[in-house]
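Q: Here's a chain of 77 amino acids. Please give me its 3D structure as tokens.
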Amino acid sequence: MKIEILGGGCQKCDNLKQITEEVAKELNLDYEIVKVSDMVKIMEYAVITTPALVIDGIVKHSGSVPSKADIKNYLLS
């Protein structure tokens, strides 16, 4: 599973990465997590507000840091 955290490096982006890693580890998932700050790459996903969570190329959430429960649902769906 490829997980991408889209954002310019703000605190919310860092929080999203940390929480997502925690949940992925709790679920014992085989994953790779990457922070993406390149605006051209972010625009390819048509994301207007960051942070954004992308799982296997699909934007699951953008504009805020979702709850751990929501992240768990995104990772399992």
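Q: Can you summarize the key feature?
A: The helical segments are 11-26, 39-44, 68-76.
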